[in-house]
Write a structure and sequence with these properties.
single chain, 138 residues, mainly alpha, globular
Length: 138
């Protein structure tokens, strides 16, 4: 029994390290301009550490760079489903929505980010930007 627990503990420690390696490979592929490999490596990082939202943020950015906005948005939604109490996930979604010039959904996401982290200067700043964009449309 003890060896099974030890094995499980070792696996739990190693997975994030293996994910970090795949994450680094994704960044290296991106620097080489190999988007296909970057996406594959980011997916590998996500599967190796399925509780981390960081690879999902990277996938979103990669899809966005390719112009695949539905996939970029879907990865951020996955991050929120995975860690709904993580203000960074909501902040990322809010930033994405701002970048797409969607101030109303940005305000909703950023409001959640701020409720989860009352001291977030980034959320406050982005909320002001979203309100300004919304006001400019009225």
């Amino acid at each position: 029994m003890l060896s099974a627990v030890s094995l499980a503990a070792a696996w739990m420690i190693a997975q994030p390290m293996r994910a970090a390696s795949a994450d680094a490979a994704a960044i290296a592929a991106l620097e080489r301009g190999d988007m296909r490999a970057a996406i594959a490596d980011a997916r590998t990082a996500s599967s190796r550490d399925p509780v981390s939202v960081e690879p999902l943020f990277e996938l979103s950015a990669l899809y966005g760079a390719l112009g695949d906005q539905p996939s970029a948005h879907a990865e951020l939604q996955r991050a929120i489903r995975l860690q709904p109490a993580n203000p960074a996930a909501w902040q990322q979604l809010g930033d994405y929505e701002l970048g797409q010039h969607h101030p109303r959904p940005a305000l909703a996401a950023l409001g959640t980010a701020l409720r989860l982290d009352l001291h977030s200067l980034a959320a406050r700043s982005d909320i002001a930007r979203a309100r300004a964009e919304l006001g400019a449309r009225l």
